[in-house]
Amino acid sequence: MKTYHNGKFVGKYDTSTNVNILHILRWKIFENLPKTWQKQKTIKPLVPQIEAEKLADKEDFICWLSHASFLIQLGGKRFLIDPVFEDIPFYKRQITTPYSLKELGAIDYLLLSHVHYDHFDKTSIKALTKQTFKAVLPLNMSKLLHKILDVKSVELDWYECYDDGDIKITLVPAKHWGRRGIFDKNKALWGGYIITHKDKSIYFAGDSAKGEHFEEIGKRFDIEYALLPIGAYKPEFIMKHNHLNPQEAFDAFKKLKAKTMIPMHYGTFKLTDEALDEPLEWIEKIAKENPNKIKILKVGKILKV
């Protein structure tokens, strides 16, 4: 499914070959920049739902912390996924982080999906210094993490599983890529995660374009909740190779044969051309047409699972 060649991960789920610097410059200079001079429509910002007292509950829950950041409690263990609580290079947060680290409580596992700045944020990770937990990462990401934190970690290849008794964490494929600097493209693997405890299974997709991997994952796992990205999809000629729009995310959900879809990766950073509230409006329309399939969480909302 993937290969490691000359120090880089390559294969059919590597979309970096579609990231053409000339196309990006054309977009930034001739399409994106002029829009900053135009009058933009009024945006409806996300409004967090603060339920700090519920974070102390012993029951299983999913809490969306904005963008692709989640706090999940399953089987008495806490999972913090892709924590990004601050501004990132070139982009400011458009909403506040709903909870402080103290309110989030002690975590047991830190899960990181890939090295892009809106998923791997050094400042947010460094803030975890006083906590004791195990980090689970894709191959070759530990070196980067250990420059920030002295923490126990385990690296996984696609479909490899970290087994901790009743808790199982499996890295699954995503159609994406990774880079933080000029010379480190695809030096580390990327992916999503399946977290299982007994008969409960939660899928976190990370970043991904559409592809046959969703159907493959659905055949291997019985997924209850699918956390799928719906934002950062315009301009299509660039972003279709890296991200899902809301309809593509719902199509992926159906291929996964999951029970409930939870949208993410929208409303936090203005990464691309679509209006900040456009993904939410689009997924609300799809949800209305498909009752009981999509659970749209407010930032900070505690969903018992």
What can you tell me about this protein's structure?
- The chain is α/β, with parallel strands linked by helices and 305 residues long.
- It has a single domain (2-35, 61-300), classed as Ribonuclease Z/Hydroxyacylglutathione hydrolase-like (Metallo-beta-lactamase, Chain A).
- The chain has helices spanning 21-35, 101-104, 122-126, 142-146, 213-220, 236-239, 246-256, 278-289; strands spanning 2-5, 8-11, 61-66, 69-74, 77-81, 109-111, 134-138, 152-156, 161-164, 167-172, 192-197, 200-204, 225-229, 260-264, 302-304.
- Helix 5 (213-220) packs parallel to helix 7.
- The strands form three sheets. It has a seven-stranded mixed β-sheet with strand order 8-7-6-5-4-3-15, with no helix packed on it. A six-stranded mixed β-sheet has the order 9-10-11-12-13-14, with helices on one face.
- It contains eight helices and 15 strands.
- It is globular.
- The model has no long low-confidence stretch (mean pLDDT 92).
- Strand 4 and strand 5 (77-81) form a beta hairpin.
Kindly summarize this structure in a few lines:
The protein is an alpha/beta fold and 305 residues long. The chain has eight helices and 15 strands.
What share of the residues does DSSP label as strand, in percent? 15-25%
- How many structurally independent domains? 1
The residue fraction in helices comes out at 10-25%
CATH architecture: 4-Layer Sandwich
Intertermini distance: 33 Å
Shape: globular
CATH class reads: Alpha Beta
What oligomeric assembly is this protein in? Answer: single chain
CATH superfamily: Ribonuclease Z/Hydroxyacylglutathione hydrolase-like
The ordered H/E elements are EEHEEEHEHEHEEEEEHEHHEHE
The name CATH uses for the topology is Metallo-beta-lactamase, Chain A
Low-confidence stretches: none
Number of extended strands: 15
The residue-averaged pLDDT reads 92
**C-alpha Rg, in Å?**
18 Å
Task: Assign the structural class, choosing from mainly alpha, mainly beta, alpha/beta, alpha+beta, or little secondary structure.
Answer: alpha/beta
Largest sheet: 7 strands, mixed
